[in-house]
Design brief:
heterodimer, A: alpha/beta, 10-stranded mixed β-sheet, 7-stranded mixed barrel, 19 strands, globular, B: 1083 residues, alpha/beta, 7-stranded antiparallel β-sheet, 40 strands
């Protein structure tokens, strides 16, 4: 008989499950994603740092895991909660999913009523939670309630990689790495730029020293309002050089432009989010992974909302044309998810060519 | 852009009769489409020949024409109704092809009718093989290497180039008709000719085989602004080579990694855009080589399809409804998601459950048919089940199949593994058997080419049986819960524990192991679902909201099958609507995704669950209904009624006790005897008993059937002891054999009636066209009765009333009579809604089901204020549509065993005109010129002569073989003599094959003519020449051909215009269970 695992939320909800990952106890913000494929891509997405990820999809691990699906060098979600986990090497990759979770020291539970968990979070909002293979529910609950909430924490420094460079041709883009997904870097390079990546915390002068034709701000974990070094750097660079941001990069650009961010009730995480482009009315099916959103009320002069979520009308895109700065809240690199918005990489890189 | 205001009237084409490859799914999508367009304020004109549908209910469209789906009829309807636009994408391939014909013949232009939801160019690019290949290759994708051929030589050449096996795909056919896999030259010749004939454009694609590759489908919905979403990905468990309609399929795709899925998504969108689908639903099919990663595009349907209906039910995203609105100008983001209402339709549903569809076959009805599954669809229905895991959904779907036959029983593991190398209807059962016998997932995968992931699921499911392989009393709650969560149903657990489904369910409920119910919400719970569409699982909490109203549960009819089709779904849909209107919460249980009843907008709560004891009892335990309606879903719910009642669940209407009185031959016989009603002599031969002696006593000819089989299975007419011996040898009946005297040549009459237990009201007295002995489902019938006089009709009504009251019927009853020489014999009584209820309701304009529901809820007949049955100015003919064309090895003969998959109605001012229309609707229009080949058994010769005279007067030529030609000549009918098959070429079969015969009239029964006749009939079948096999139908055809000149009688008739002639109410009152006051008991 496999070991049991217990899942608790800070408001006292307790769900039983079966341990299918590493033994131990993990705490974090409990979030869910409705995406049906790309579980390894999700767990290796640095934006999940500090969070426990619950998959709404019914069966996770049907295909194997392997390096091809990594979005970074590590697993970032603190723990993984599933309805049913499989362990089938073969199609997809050489390692069974549960084996992969163990190898990456992820505490994981399946056989959990994930639909109840998702409905609970949907109705009551994001909250802290824990998963343990060793503690009683009461013990775990006490630990969860002691755990620091995500709000006010800058986790980007922990999630960012080291300074590095990619690409050999085209305009030079400096990317501020707040926990950048591999496929974002690949998307930029594929669009035809030379990429210099600086970890979160880099100053505007450090960026300038690389003589960029454009600056990119990446996705990342934690509370955007707390990522003041990047906000300061971006504010400093605004107007000097074209800037493009994705996800947290979008939120940080918002802050730099004088807007602020607030928590969404339970976040947007999935691969089916419709977003309307304000200019031509077209709808993109987008990949999203964020717990905060830019608040654009009031909207300062010179700033445009370029995209709107059709799920909750939240801001999905910003542009400050005079400053040549723009951003999207969603993930054009997809991985996992639909490719509708991939064009944004070339749009940004091509605009640098003209500049 | 909001809705278009320049359109006022929109013409919608339905899909016609239910045939293999085009089933009830188009009733579902068509009904949704019509409703959506009317909700938008458009005037909807509908043409559909199928009376069994909700779509043709007079309330669904503004103007409803139950007319043949041919150019003649539709052009007349266009001329009468002058629609502004035609929406051709909701009625399957039939509607699309017809719309293209109307377009190409300039009819749409002539009347200024705009094609919406599709444009001719896009349809051409999707359907024309070469044009499609160009589109696909133009966007950098691949199709399987192939060549379009138009003749045999070209085809042989192509096969040599591509290498055998090759796949044949005729252009513009439905359900892969005329297609298949050819492994060698001989097969290719045979199949290619058939394919060329089947294709209306005479094109067949000869394609490189991708047999064994994974098969995937994506359902796309797009709008005129260029937005497109993928509603659903579907993975076929059966690999390439098996038609998707015959495959077990799963949504969402189970084994695809994200990069693989996104590659398919990109490809699907690219193909849809390259083809240029205007708006609405489309379906793109792919083959994927899982080893090499090679991907090819197989085909695309630029319309709502079987798969899109399935995707709608699997996800909750109503593709047809959305497609209809997109066709009138909306964009996806302007339309709300039906289920959340707060989010738009421009998103992609995400699932937190697994949906499994398993097809239902009926090979047992078609001896001689090739049972190997190929690219040519053969299934007649399907089951959909949802669960939180693949295994849970799969287990439920397997149990929902309601098989009448047993799967192949392997002798050993090696035999099983050999069996699964060929795709057959029971391959999945044999795979489970093999897993139980120790086969590994890898072995199953190697032999079946089914993806190893699915094989592993099957092995796990079998392994889940071990913990419950012990006496039921020793199985604890945790083990039971684990077994159910692993995908076993109560029936599976009963098998393991040598117990019964009911006993397992009882113990489970006692131990508190009950299912939870979850909403199908399109969004994996991210938003609150407002639409009450549920499935069961074994999780921790249910999410069905409480309801102040009393619940009434309506049990559906399960998968479509021969003998139980969408006519019962029609009844169920009317029942839930009526129940709801009467102030109750209408709860629907059904597992058939091709139906309107499983549209989540129809009932107050829909449970997509198998109509099996465990599922129904669990739902009743939760719903605590005021009652359950079991008499509207055919035999499926009727079989559950007694057990449900034993478990304390109130059955509305006719009690299980009364049902038993009708169904038990002995008890029913006693009732008839008490009432003094005549029935043909009958007796039962005990197992292994002397059937010949019993038959001799009953008197030949006899009609025999085993008592344990369902749905008229294995029924046969035996004229002689030799026939009976041959029957016993062939069928090897295990239980009792029922032997009835057969009333040869008798007129068969069906009576549908309503009763409240004390009075009875006749809804219709229908005469069959074919004589007794042909299953009522395969017979044509006419309303009102044509040959029975008022006295006979009154007699039939009285006998029906006597039977209904004696049985204690509350609700529907159907009684079948045979009438010979003015004498009435009772054949059987069915205490439930019959197959003819929708036909009668449409022909008479009476809401029969609503009346029946009110009776079941306790009202009296007099409360309903029913008029007399409704002789109209019109004659309605129902004609059966048979699947022989798909099973070319079969002899297309009618008999006591039903084989029809669907029906059409012809409605006109005269019987000949109505009959002719019905034949057109059934796809076998009667000729107006040319040669009729007449060949009948001796008994029929006098009538054959008379009808030949009629045909000659109508300008037809007659061909006949020696005997018949001589008989005709003797009365001065000139007939061209042709060779019998046995006399050598050029013989009659050659003429038929050469297209020189316009109609075949061939009536067999009994030895001699059988072999020659069978060859003639099979040839006619292959050549697509109408072939009539009973003398009565032949006479009707002759009258229809002769009456063809009376064009006025053939004018299209809108159901809304059927005037009812009110006469005296004809209630027949009597004491419950006793005799009838107006009925004089004859001695």
């Amino acid at each position: 008989m496999s070991a049991r695992a217990v899942v608790v939320l800070e408001d006292g909800l307790v769900l039983d499950g079966r341990s299918v990952g590493a033994p131990g106890t993990r705490l974090g913000e409990m979030v869910f994603t409705t995406g049906m494929t790309g579980y390894q891509e999700a767990v290796t997405d640095p934006s999940y740092h500090g969070q426990i990820l619950c998959f709404a999809a019914p069966m996770i691990g049907n295909y194997g895991a392997g390096p091809a699906h990594d979005e970074s060098d590590a697993a970032w979600a603190q723990a993984v909660i599933m309805s049913r986990a499989g362990n089938h090497p073969g199609t997809g990759g050489p390692t069974g999913w549960c084996d992969w979770l163990i190898a990456h020291d992820r505490v994981a539970a399946d056989d959990v009523d994930t639909r109840r968990l998702v409905r609970h979070l949907r109705d009551r909002g994001a909250m802290r939670g824990g998963v343990s293979t060793e503690l009683s529910a009461d013990e775990l609950l006490a630990r969860v309630r002691d755990h620091a909430p995500l709000d006010g924490r800058d986790l980007t420094v922990e999630a960012a990689g080291t300074a590095r460079a990619m690409g050999t041709d085209g305009p030079r883009v400096v990317a501020l790495d707040c926990g950048m997904k591999r496929s974002i870097a690949n998307g930029l390079v594929r669009a035809g730029c030379r990429l210099a990546i600086l970890p979160s915390g880099a100053t505007a002068d450090q960026v300038r020293a690389l003589d960029p034709d454009g600056v990119f701000i990446s996705n990342g974990p934690g509370d955007p309002a707390a990522v003041t070094p990047v906000i300061d750097a971006v504010r400093d660079l605004l107007g000097e050089v074209p800037i493009f941001g994705i996800c947290m990069g979008h939120q940080l650009l918002g802050h730099a432009l004088g807007l602020h961010t607030e928590r969404l009730p339970f976040g947007h995480r999935g691969a089916n989010h419709p977003v309307r482009r304000v200019d031509d009315g077209r709808v993109e099916v987008t990949v999203q992974n964020h717990g905060y959103a830019v608040v654009a009320d009031p909207l300062p002069d010179g700033i445009q909302i370029t995209r709107v979520s059709l799920f909750d009308q939240s801001v999905e895109g910003l542009a400050a044309p005079a400053l040549r700065a723009s951003s999207v809240q969603y993930h054009p690199e997809a991985s996992p998810g639909p490719h509708d918005a991939r064009y944004l990489f070339s749009e940004f890189v091509d605009s640098l060519g003209r500049a | 852009m909001p809705r278009r205001d320049d359109l006022h009237t929109i013409l919608v084409l339905g899909s016609g009769p239910i045939v293999i490859g085009q089933g009830g799914e188009f009733d579902y999508s068509g009904t949704q489409g019509c409703t959506a367009l009317r909700d938008e304020g458009y005037r909807v004109v509908l043409v559909n020949s199928n009376p069994a549908t909700i779509m043709t209910d007079p309330a669904t469209a503004d103007r409803t024409y139950v007319e043949p789906l041919d150019m003649t009829a539709v052009e007349r309807v266009i001329a009468i109704e002058r629609p502004d636009a035609l929406l051709p994408t909701l009625g399957g391939q039939t509607a699309l092809n017809l719309a293209m014909d109307l377009h190409h013949h300039g009819i749409l232009d002539r009347y200024g009718v705009e094609l919406i939801g599709a444009d001719a160019g896009a349809i051409h690019r999707a359907e024309d093989r070469q044009a499609f290949r160009d589109c696909v290759e133009g966007v950098g994708l691949a199709v399987p290497a192939s060549r379009v051929v138009t003749d045999l030589a070209d085809g042989l050449d192509a096969a040599t180039e591509l290498g055998f096996p090759v796949i044949l795909r005729p252009g513009f056919t439905l359900g892969g008709e005329g297609g298949g896999v050819a492994h060698d030259d001989a097969q290719l010749r045979d199949m290619l000719q058939r394919g060329l004939d089947a294709s209306p454009i005479g094109q067949v694609l000869v394609e490189r085989s991708v047999l064994g590759w994974g098969e995937f489908e994506l359902e796309v919905v797009c709008d005129h602004a260029g937005n497109a979403v993928i509603v659903c990905s579907i993975e076929n468990i059966d690999p390439m080579g098996v038609h998707t309609g015959d495959s077990i399929t799963v949504a969402p795709a189970m084994t695809l990694s994200d990069p693989e899925l996104q590659a398919l998504r990109d490809a699907a969108l690219a193909v849809v855009r390259a083809v240029g689908v205007a708006t609405g639903g489309a379906n793109v099919q792919f083959a994927l080589n899982r080893e090499t990663g090679e991907m090819v595009v197989i085909e695309m349907n630029p319309r709502v399809s079987r798969s899109s209906a399935l995707a709608s039910k699997a996800t909750g995203f109503p593709i047809a409804k959305i497609a209809a609105r997109l066709a009138v100008g909306y964009t996806l983001d302007e339309l709300p998601n039906d289920i959340t209402r707060v989010t738009p339709a421009s998103f992609e549903p995400t699932l937190d459950y697994v949906a499994v569809k398993i097809p239902r076959f009926a090979f047992e009805k078609l001896p001689g048919a090739d049972t190997e599954l190929t690219t040519h669809m053969k299934s007649v229905g399907e089951v959909l089940a949802l669960g939180r895991t693949f295994a849970e959904a799969f287990g439920k779907a397997m149990s929902g199949r309601e098989l009448d036959v047993c799967a192949y029983a392997p002798t050993d593991l090696a035999d099983a593994l050999t069996h699964i190398e060929t795709a057959t209807w029971d391959r999945i059962d044999v795979m489970l058997w093999a897993a139980g016998a120790g086969a590994t997932a890898e072995a199953l995968a190697t032999h079946s080419q089914v993806d190893v992931w699915f094989c592993r699921q099957l092995v796990d499911l079998v392994d889940a049986g071990f913990p419950v392989r012990r006496p039921l009393g020793q199985i604890d709650a945790e083990t039971l819960r684990a077994a159910r969560r692993a995908g076993l149903t109560d029936r599976d657990i009963a098998r393991e524990s040598a117990s019964s489904e009911l006993a397992v369910g009882r113990r489970r409920r006692e131990l508190g192991v009950t299912p939870t119910y979850h909403a199908v919400d399109t969004c994996a719970a991210e938003f609150a679902a407002l639409t009450p569409y549920y499935y069961s699982a074994f999780e921790t909490v249910s999410e069905v909201p409480t309801d102040d109203r009393d619940a009434i549960v309506v049990l559906g009819s399960g998968p479509n099958r021969i003998g139980q089709g969408i006519e019962f779904d029609y009844c169920c849909v009317h029942a839930v609507r009526s129940v709801s209107e009467l102030g109750f919460a209408a709860v629907m249980i059904n597992c058939n995704p091709e139906t309107v009843s499983t549209d989540h907008g129809v009932s107050d709560r829909l449970y997509m669950e198998p109509v099996t004891l465990d599922a129904v009892l669990d739902i009743c335990a939760r719903e605590r209904p005021r009652g359950v309606i079991t008499q509207l879903g055919g035999q499926t719910p009727l079989r559950l009624a007694a057990t449900l009642a034993d478990e304390g669940i109130p059955i509305l209407g006719t009690s299980p006790e009364a049902i038993d009185r009708a169904e038990d031959r002995g008890r029913f016989g006693a009732i008839l005897a008490r009432l003094g009603l005549e029935a043909p002599p009958w007796a039962t031969a005990p197992p292994g008993g002397d059937s010949l002696a019993v038959a001799r006593e009953v008197g030949y000819p006899v009609i025999v059937r085993p008592s344990y089989v369902l749905g008229g299975r294995a029924m046969a007419i035996c004229d002689t002891p030799d026939d009976l011996r041959a029957y016993i040898e062939r069928e090897r009946p295990r239980g009792e054999l029922l032997i009835d005297h057969f009333l040869d040549g008798a007129l068969e009459v069906d009576v549908d009636a309503l009763s409240d237990g004390t009075a009875c009201w006749t809804a219709a007295v229908m005469e069959h066209v074919e004589a007794a002995g042909i299953h009522s489902g395969d017979s044509a019938c006419v309303l009102p009765a044509q040959s029975s006089g008022p006295a006979l009709v009154a007699e039939l009504e009285e006998q029906t009333a006597a039977i209904a009251l004696a049985l204690g019927v509350v609700g529907f009853v159907n009684v079948q009579f045979a009438v010979r020489n003015g004498k009435v014999f009772v054949i059987e009584a069915n205490p439930r809604a019959s197959r003819t209820v929708p036909f009668v309701a449409k022909a008479t304009g009476m809401p029969l089901v609503r009346h029946a529901v009110r009776l079941m809820l306790g009202e009296r007949l007099e409360d309903l204020e029913l008029p007399a049955p409704t002789p109209t100015r019109h004659i309605a003919v129902k004609e059966a549509v048979l699947p022989f064309g798909r099973f070319l090895g079969t002899d297309p003969l009618l008999g006591p065993e039903m084989r029809a998959t669907g029906e059409v109605m012809g409605i006109a001012g005269s019987f000949p005109a109505a009959f002719a229309k019905a034949q057109r609707g059934a796809g076998a229009p009667l000729p107006s010129q040319g040669a009729v080949f007449v060949s009948t058994r001796d008994d029929d010769k006098p009538r054959a002569v008379a009808l030949a005279q009629t045909l000659v007067r109508a300008g037809m030529r007659i061909c006949a073989t020696d005997g018949t030609a001589a008989a005709l000549a003797s009365v001065g009918v000139a007939a061209e003599r042709v060779n019998k098959v046995s006399e050598g070429s050029p013989h009659v079969a050659d003429l038929i094959a050469a297209g020189q015969i316009a109609l075949v009239l061939n009536t067999p029964r009994g030895g001699g003519a059988r072999s020659d006749g069978a060859e003639i009939r099979r040839t006619a079948l292959r050549a697509g020449v109408p072939c009539i096999t009973t003398i009565e139908a032949a006479e009707a055809a002759a009258r229809a051909i002769a009456g063809a000149a009376g064009q006025a009688a053939s004018e299209p008739v809108a159901l809304q215009d059927l005037g009812r002639v009110e006469t005296q109410p004809r209630l027949r009152v009597g004491a419950p269970g006793g005799s009838v006051t107006q009925h004089s008991v004859s001695g």
